[in-house]
Specification:
The chain is of the alpha/beta class and 241 residues long. The chain has a single domain, classed as NAD(P)-binding Rossmann-like Domain (Rossmann fold). The chain contains ten helices and eight strands. The strands form two sheets. Strands 3-2-1-4-5-6 form a six-stranded parallel beta sheet. A two-stranded parallel ribbon has the order 7-8. Strand 1, helix 1 and strand 2 form a beta-alpha-beta unit. The longest helix has 13 residues. It binds NADP nicotinamide-adenine-dinucleotide phosphate.
């Protein structure tokens, strides 16, 4: 497929590598300037924003949550048949307080409303480091949750994810995607498929933001990846899945 990625952070660059290596035609853009891509470790072609949305089957948006509304006008040239994937997560310390989200609006529903286009939520519930190594905490095959309202679009994205060696759990429509938002047992806890299915069922919408902030309070920049995953599993109640 022809795939465009907007955002060259750890998730965007890691995805560019996996998707290039699994045979896709990949191009990647920064939302501000092509110059921002210099020195970054991605695969595929570095292009401008205007170019990245041309002639693609899938557009992956991988930006800080609060930045997404700023690209709405630029996305108006996007073909209506293009599948849009939203990888974002809301963190108030980084994104500022966004009142509708604080009041319980589902994060990717807000994103879809902001850009006035449907999205599939995927790649939000694995840490970038997990996505690089693709092994779960117990060594079994890693699984990822996806949500969205268009089943044929979800099937395309699920096939793309399977090809890079990750199992997929279809979590239903976009409105249900709060089950894999930050603070939930499914969020960045490195689960296999059956564990992830249970985690999605156990999600508690009211508790998740509290658990998310608890993890951020304990986070230290010098933590090892395995310690971050262990902390997530403990605080998000994923240890016994
Ligand atoms: N990191 C993870 O483990 C992880 C896991 C799952 C989901 N996510 C979510 O996926 C999204 C991408 O995360 P990420 O960690 O890969 O990268 P990120 O730090 O959110 O940055 C993504 C891209 O956005 C650019 N950017 C930063 N500030 C910007 C601004 N004000 N305007 C326009 N572009 C800006 C970054 O450029 P610079 O590099 O120049 O700053 C980078 O190209 C986020 O919503 C995040 O919550 C992250």
């Amino acid at each position: 497929m022809n795939i465009g990625i907007i955002g060259a952070g750890p998730i965007g660059t890691t995805l560019s590598q996996h998707l290039f290596n699994t045979g896709h035609d990949v191009k990647i853009a920064d939302a501000r300037s092509i110059k921002k891509l210099e020195g970054k470790d991605f695969k595929g072609k570095a292009v401008t924003f205007e170019e990245v949305i041309q002639n693609i089957d899938v557009l992956i948006i991988s930006l800080p949550f609060h930045v997404v509304p700023t690209i709405k006008e630029k996305l108006s040239q996007l073909d209506d048949n293009t599948i849009i994937v939203d990888t974002t997560n809301y963190y108030p310390f980084r994104d500022g307080n966004i009142q509708p989200i604080e009041d319980g609006k589902v994060e990717s529903v807000w994103i879809a409303e902001q850009i006035e286009k449907p999205v599939i939520k995927a790649f939000n519930n694995l840490l970038a480091r997990t996505l690089q190594t693709i092994t779960s905490a117990d060594g079994s095959k890693m699984a990822m949750a996806i949500s969205g309202d268009n089943q044929s679009h979800k099937d395309v994205i699920a096939e793309m994810i399977n090809a890079i060696g990750i199992d997929v759990v279809d979590n239903g429509d976009l409105n249900n995607s709060w089950r894999h938002q930050p603070g939930s047992p499914a969020y960045c806890t490195e689960l296999n498929k059956s564990q992830l299915e249970r985690a999605l069922q156990l999600a508690d919408k009211a508790a998740a933001p509290i658990h998310r902030d608890e993890v951020m309070n304990h986070f230290r920049p010098d933590m090892q990846h395995k310690d971050i995953v262990a902390m997530n599993r403990k605080v998000y109640d994923a240890d016994t899945l």
